[in-house]
Design brief:
Elements: E1 13-14, H1 17-20, H2 22-31, H3 41-56, H4 60-84, E2 89-91, H5 103-119, H6 124-127, H7 134-150, H8 169-173, H9 184-196, H10 198-206, H11 220-226, E3 235-246, H12 257-271, H13 276-279, E4 301-302, H14 304-307, E5 310-312, E6 315-317, H15 328-335, E7 358-367, H16 379-390, H17 392-397, E8 405-410, H18 412-444, H19 449-473, E9 478-480, H20 486-507, H21 514-541, H22 549-583, H23 597-608, E10 618-619, H24 628-631, H25 636-655, H26 657-677, H27 693-700, E11 727-728, E12 743-751, E13 759-763, E14 773-774, E15 784-788, E16 797-804, E17 812-816, E18 827-834, E19 842-849, E20 857-860, E21 877-883, E22 914-921, E23 923-927, E24 942-945, H28 955-966, E25 972-978, H29 984-993, E26 1014-1018, E27 1021-1034, H30 1039-1058, E28 1070-1073, H31 1074-1108, H32 1111-1134, H33 1141-1147, H34 1150-1167, H35 1177-1207, H36 1216-1247, H37 1258-1283
Parallel strand pairs: 2-9
Antiparallel strand pairs: 1-10, 3-7, 3-8, 4-7, 5-6, 6-11, 12-13, 12-14, 12-15, 16-17, 16-18, 19-20, 19-21, 22-27, 22-28, 23-24, 25-27, 26-27
Length: about 1300
């Protein structure tokens, strides 16, 4: 093992009294000249404390005990945390970045809670069955009651059905007289619909989380307890979302035969899963679809139900289960007559241009599962069983994409599982990073396994301690996705501290007493690492002021882990160095371990503290080269690296310091200019790599309908008019048996000769003379295969069947890729064309010719060579792809619109492609006083209702507002106003209440899709109402661009509300949107990150000012940090990045990461001293700068290298925030070490105080000044904030 002692590479002065008792000695000098006076009490305590440290860390058994306790304490606390405390919730959701305290989030959360308390689920009214809405019926009954009280005639009201009894028996009786005004036929139809969907209603009510449903006296409790179903899997509860995206062509039209066959193959593949029937959705209506038997599982909700119909008994069933493709244009012409059609395609498709770049599909799965009697029977277990089943599709679907079709897949369980797997796979890169760091640390510690192990172990143990403090002490119950970065970053930060301790211990080898050496190491390295760790932790802690929960948690966790890392390295590394030096290496310049301990202690107590303050304890020469005789006894790597840094970096920089400062100024100005050119993000945040399934799904959601709409009744198989009404196939649509596609059928015949090798014959005729017999499919033989008579698409490889009559007694047949060789008396019998590479709907066949008589050519399904030959492929041996046998069915090319009977195309309905904006009245806000934090996990709070809101007094103003907002075409799409809950009778009743309610705008919705408008009722009173408007805001724009849309909505609504009477409760209404939450999340994320950057800079300046206690030492650090940050931002601009939330969050830690190296260099400058104080100040600065570079150069370069290597694996992460975080940290580290070795060194050599030593109480004085400045700055900021305008941002 190499020795830990490094020779003194420099000769100079190191004033050790500064580290020991400088303050106490000066106090003694002020008392008098009695040098023999007893030291003061404070000095006794200090001596006693450092003597205790020195004694513990020079005894191997005591150091071993420290190491044992250093391991046991984190493990014990971690065991307590994992076994006795609540488990940590790993929050990987995008909502972890939502700002719950922001006004936009509070508005939307208040509406969400109100809807949940009324309906039981936020998305319930989007998925309910057609023609039945509990909420609309209740509101209708209440309006009719008010109309009756006013004595108005309601005989003209149409579609007034029997009240649902929501208001109780008393109010229901008031409507009995009105039943005669309803249409009896409509009432009967409605009643049939109500009866048919009662299970759906039971599901919604029983799954409700509303507090009223949970009360013992609630009438819904009985339904929930005894709900049961006669059939299993009849309720559509889960789903898989599929999006097929066309690629590979310029037009990218998904409706081509090749792409549609691929989609059909994928859908059928999913249904062929062995466990599919155990989880599929089995609605009762599917019993009427004969081709679905015997399982009667619902086919995918897809347009392929029209494109691949099935035929049974001369009837066409639109269920997508047929094997052949119908006429594309005719099938689409039929499908577009239903408004559900638009749900499957993009917004560019029109009736005149039936082309779409994508096609949506859904596969629904039903509950209750087998062995469960209802949805409420062990629901978590049912969900777990389904999740274990459905995640198997991820591997299948990930392999289905082709060059023409990109298959994207999602759904709650699949998407979450893929996010979780992606996160775990990215975290596994930390193991690779740790392995690389281990090897590097092993090399940089001069191949010491002992120091490498304990150095890295101290970092790992600090992670456990930080996790304990984070979870148990601070009570945080979740880990955010950003916290995963800590596994990479802490390696570089921790290794920095480890290298400083090792380097300091090696450079103190001149001290002959082990106690002196250890105390010097602890004080010098401990203080240097404390300064950097404190500033880094403070910079991370600045993020705790962020309003974004994920950023706040990340800042807290990183500040804890950096602090614990410093503490554990400071505790364990001295103990490890003690054992390594005394038990693992042989030294001649250390105190004896046993008999010499007492003399060393005496020498330590009498010699060190009684030495003069200017005594030359470290004699370092700036010119003395490394002695060859001593280099072998020290760390060879560190010694050589130190020589290289001295010769190639430090000395040239000091010599050309003015030039370097000039270049720095130019670089700074250029960087500032590039920073000004950096643009805000022009697109939505990217969370995963662009080419991944996850990110492409997220990108497409801006073009697709809202996630809450589940159109499981939209396909042809479930269409209201085409559902089970089947077409009789016209005679002119029947396909003939023959075809003109150019397909040939090559028949293979076989003749057994009694030998081991039979003869094979190939013919285009199905019958040949005897004794030839048709080949069977046994033993790999192929009885026939199909091919093309001429080149067809990719089937362009020509093969020839050659025959020779030169052999007796029977001719021979041969397959070859060349022409028949006439010189060998082979003549061509016929040719055919196959493919050389795999094609869709093709099979691979092998052919080979036997090498001995009778030289037969055989075609087989496998293996290569057909057992005839094992040689390489050639003209008479190889493989080819033949088209699969095609059986022409009656549905192939079927055109249902051939007679012009399909009808007119439906008008495009609203499918929530724009941001849905809600205008809410009757809600004042949300009460979150019971919330202890700002995180998204947990209770949202409670709604504060407006007691003055009365819908009947404000009904006229509400109708007027609805018309005014829907008329603003800049904000609302045509047909996008949804002012009322679903229910046609409401529009007939409202005009009786107020004239303004005539001709209210009608929404253009999908059949079966209910209005997003909602009301909150309780006890026969309307507490709140929300009107929904599908806005023109495109959800794919960046947050900064969308913010202008928000401002337009806000200003327009406030203008409309201001026109109402002052006494109107509607003036307290507001507009909200889920999309507004997302845009403010990014905007506030960028702003808070920039504020955190400034706060980190202020904290670092304050910390450095306190610890250096000199302006000329603070200025080089400040200028270096300024240049580093500006240059990093400039590099981001050169790389083409934009300032989004991810980039801003990464910038918030730059200051903490940048200050480490330059602060180490300044600390080394303070430690360096020159015995000759009579020289010029410039010479003193240069000498001290060189000494500082020699002292810390190896440590900071080693730390920078390890930090960069630890972040390189982040480049390959799929999660984009991880990847960009790693890139920014690596760029920042490289720039920081470069600036430290050049700019900071040049600035210290130019303006550093030559003869400055830190005076007594300098730290306290500097701290007082910084505190005063900080208080003044805080007062000024608070004063300015009081006069700032109050906005939502």
């Amino acid at each position: 093992m190499d020795s830990e002692d490094e020779p003194l590479l420099l000769q100079g002065t190191w004033n050790l009294s500064e580290f020991e008792e400088q303050e106490e000695e000066e106090e003694e000098e002020g008392e008098g000249e009695g040098g023999t006076e007893q030291p003061a009490g404070n000095e006794q305590v200090c001596k006693g404390l450092w003597w205790a440290f020195g004694w513990v860390y020079t005894q191997p058994w005591a150091s071993g005990l420290v190491l044992a306790m250093g391991f046991l304490v984190p493990f014990a606390l971690s065991a307590y945390m994992f076994l006795r405390c609540e488990p940590l919730d790993i929050d990987l959701s995008y909502s972890a970045f939502e700002v719950r305290s922001h006004a936009s989030a509070e508005r939307f959360d208040a509406l969400t809670i109100a809807v949940k308390s009324q309906l039981g689920s936020w998305d319930r009214h989007r998925r309910d069955a057609e023609g039945f809405d509990l909420e609309a019926n209740a509101l209708r009954d209440l309006f009719l009651l008010m109309v009756n009280r006013k004595g108005k005639d309601v005989s003209t009201v149409v579609n007034v059905t029997e009240p649902a009894g929501i208001l109780g028996q008393t109010e229901t009786g008031a409507h009995n007289d009105n039943r005669q005004f309803g249409n009896e036929k409509n009432n009967k139809t409605k009643e049939e619909k109500i009866e048919s969907i009662k299970p759906n209603i039971a599901v919604n009510l029983n799954s409700s989380d509303a507090g009223d449903h949970g009360k013992p006296d609630s009438p819904l409790m009985r339904k929930r307890r005894f709900a049961s179903y006669s059939y299993l899997q009849t309720q559509a509860l889960w789903r898989i979302e599929l999006v097929f995206v066309a690629q590979g062509d310029k037009d990218n039209n998904i409706f081509t035969p090749e792409r549609l066959h691929t989609i059909h193959h994928v859908e059928r593949l999913l249904m062929q899963h062995p466990q599919f029937q155990q989880f599929c959705w089995k609605p009762l209506e599917m019993l009427r679809d004969l081709p679905l038997g015997p399982s009667f599982c619902s086919p995918p909700s897809s347009l392929l139900s029209y494109l691949f119909p099935s035929e049974r008994g001369g009837k066409i069933y639109y269920d997508g289960m047929g094997p052949d493709l119908a006429d594309i244009h005719g099938a689409l012409s039929l499908a577009i007559t239903h408004p559900q059609f638009y749900w499957y395609v993009d917004e560019t498709l029109t009736p005149d241009k039936l082309q779409s770049s994508l096609l949506r599909s859904e596969i629904h799965f039903g509950a209750p599962l087998p062995s469960f009697y209802s949805l409420q029977d062990r629901p978590l277990e049912q969900r777990r069983l389904f999740r274990d089943f459905v995640v198997q599709y991820a591997d299948i679907l990930s392999q289905q994409s082709t060059s023409k079709v990109k298959v994207l897949y999602g759904g709650t369980e699949l998407f979450d599982d893929e996010v979780r797997k992606t996160f775990h796979s990215d975290m596994l890169l930390a193991l690779f990073s740790g392995g690389c760091i281990t090897v590097l640390v092993y090399v940089l510690t001069s191949f010491s396994v002992f120091l490498t192990f304990f150095g890295l172990a101290s970092i790992g143990l600090s992670c456990l301690m930080a996790l304990f403090l984070y979870h148990v002490v601070f009570g945080v119950q979740y880990l955010g996705i950003l916290n995963g970065v800590a596994a990479f970053v802490i390696i570089g930060i921790g290794v920095d501290d480890v290298f400083v301790f090792i380097s300091t211990f090696r450079q103190s080898a001149h001290l002959t007493c082990s106690m002196q050496r250890m105390i010097y190491t602890i004080k010098t390295a401990g203080r240097a690492t404390f300064l950097t760790s404190f500033t880094t932790a403070a910079a991370y802690a600045a993020n705790t002021f962020s309003q974004i929960p994920a950023v706040h948690d990340f800042g807290l966790f990183m500040s804890l882990i950096v602090s614990c890392c410093w503490l554990w390295v400071s505790i364990l590394m001295p103990a490890a160095l003690c054992i390594w030096s005394q038990c693992g290496a042989a030294h001649a310049n250390t105190c004896p371990k046993c008999c010499r301990v007492t003399p060393c202690i005496v020498d330590f107590c009498t010699g060190v503290y009684e030495s003069e303050s200017d005594a030359v304890l470290l004699s370092l020469s700036a010119e003395a080269p490394l002695a060859v005789s001593t280099e072998g006894s020290v760390g060879v790597v560190s010694a050589r690296l130190q020589k290289l840094l001295r010769h190639w970096v430090a000395e040239p920089v000091v010599e050309k310091r003015k030039t370097i400062i000039g270049v720095y100024v130019l670089v700074l100005l250029g960087s500032v200019w590039c920073c000004c050119l950096l643009r805000p993000a022009s697109h939505a945040p990217v969370l995963f790599h662009r080419d991944t399934n996850l990110q492409r799904l997220l990108d497409l959601r801006s073009n697709l309908s809202a996630q809450g709409i589940a159109c499981h009744m939209c396909s042809g198989g479930s269409s209201k008019h085409r559902c089970w009404s089947v077409y009789s196939i016209p005679s002119n649509q029947t396909k003939p048996a023959s075809n003109n596609s150019g397909l040939l059928t090559v028949y293979v015949f076989k003749l057994e000769l009694g030998s081991a090798v039979p003869l094979y014959r190939y013919s285009l005729s199905a019958s040949v003379p005897g004794p030839w017999q048709a080949s069977s499919s046994t033993h790999g033989d192929v009885p026939f295969f199909q091919a093309y008579s001429s080149p067809h698409s990719n089937f362009s490889t020509r093969m020839s069947v050659c025959v020779s009559h030169a052999y007796h007694p029977r001719p021979r047949w041969m397959l070859t890729l060349r022409s028949c060789d006439a010189s060998r008396r082979w003549r061509s019998e016929f040719d055919f064309y196959v493919a050389s590479v795999e094609q869709q709907h093709s099979r691979k066949l092998y052919f080979a010719q036997h090498t001995i008589s009778p030289y037969s050519s055989r075609v087989c399904e496998g293996p290569p060579g057909c057992v005839f030959s094992s040689g390489p492929d050639g003209p008479t041996q190889g493989s080819f792809y033949a088209p699969l046998p095609v059986k022409i069915s009656r549905t192939s090319g079927f055109n249902p619109c051939s007679g012009g009977q399909c009808g007119k195309p439906a008008v495009r309905p609203l499918v929530d492609t724009g941001a849905m904006v809600f205008v809410v009245f009757g809600i004042l806000g949300i009460n979150r006083t019971q919330r202890s934090d700002n995180h998204v996990i947990g209770d949202l709070g409670s709604v504060i209702y407006d007691p003055d809101f009365d819908v009947f007094n404000e009904i006229g103003h509400l109708c007027k507002l609805c018309k005014a907002i829907s008329a603003n075409t800049k904000l609302v799409k045509p047909g996008g106003a949804q002012c009322l809950p679903s229910g046609n009778s409401l529009t007939s009743i409202l005009p009786l209440l107020h004239p303004e309610c005539h001709s209210l705008p009608e929404p253009n919705l999908l059949p079966g899709q209910l209005s997003h408008g909602a009301v909150g009722m309780q006890g026969g009173r309307v507490h709140w109402i929300s009107m929904a408007f599908e806005s023109t805001t495109y959800k794919g724009k960046s947050s900064f661009q969308t913010h202008s849309d928000f401002l337009q909505w806000e200003s327009f609504l406030q203008k409309q509300l201001a026109s109402l009477p002052a006494s109107s409760a509607l003036r307290r209404g507001f507009q909200t949107c889920q999309h507004w939450k997302q845009i403010f999340m990014e905007i506030i994320g960028v702003e808070s990150a920039l504020y955190s950057l400034l706060l980190s800079l202020a904290i670092c300046i304050a910390s450095v000012a306190v610890f250096t206690a000199h302006l000329l030492l603070l200025l080089p650090i400040l200028l270096s940090i300024l240049g580093m940050v500006c240059l990093v931002v400039a590099v981001m601009y050169w790389l083409g990045w934009e300032m989004g939330a991810v980039e801003a969050i990464s910038l918030s830690i730059l200051v903490g990461s940048s200050v480490d190296y330059c602060l180490h260099l300044v600390e080394g400058y303070l430690l360096a001293g020159d015995a000759d104080t009579s020289g010029l100040s410039s010479i003193q600065r240069q000498t001290r700068t060189l000494e500082a570079a020699d002292h810390v150069g190896v440590a900071i370069v080693s730390s920078a290298v390890t930090t960069v290597i630890s972040t390189v694996p982040l480049f390959f992460c799929v999660i984009v925030p991880f990847a960009k975080f790693g890139q920014i940290v690596a760029i920042n580290t490289a720039i920081s070490i470069g600036f430290t070795l050049t700019v900071t060194t040049a600035l210290l050599a130019t303006m550093g105080p030559g003869d400055f030593t830190r005076p007594p109480r300098a730290v306290l004085k500097a701290a007082l000044v910084v505190l005063i400045v900080g208080v003044c700055g805080g007062v000024l900021w608070w004063t300015g904030s009081q006069f700032a305008p109050d906005t939502l941002i």
